[in-house]
User: Which sequence fits this backbone?
């Protein structure tokens, strides 16, 4: 009895995760807007916003409709 094995590889290209740094020089955290004008829109902010806020803020660009399931 002989057996054969096949292997296949799937090459999936994921978008690179963007690392955003605040004015403290550390990775910014991601927040989610709860306002009426920007509901559920995500943004970067200083991770020390509660105690030592450097006032860093940047909107995360919205995903395209085709990539909405793989955006970070």
Assistant:
């Amino acid at each position: 009895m002989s057996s054969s094995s096949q292997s296949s590889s799937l090459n999936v290209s994921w978008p690179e995760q963007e690392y955003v740094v605040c004015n403290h020089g550390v990775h910014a955290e991601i927040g989610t807007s709860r306002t009426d004008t920007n509901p559920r829109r995500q943004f970067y902010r200083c991770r020390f916003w509660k105690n030592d806020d450097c006032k860093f803020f940047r909107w995360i660009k919205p995903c395209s409709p085709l990539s909405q399931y793989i955006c970070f």
About this structure: Confidence is low (pLDDT under 50) at residues 66-70. Strands lie at 29-32, 42-45, 57-59. The two ends are 49 Å apart (CA to CA).
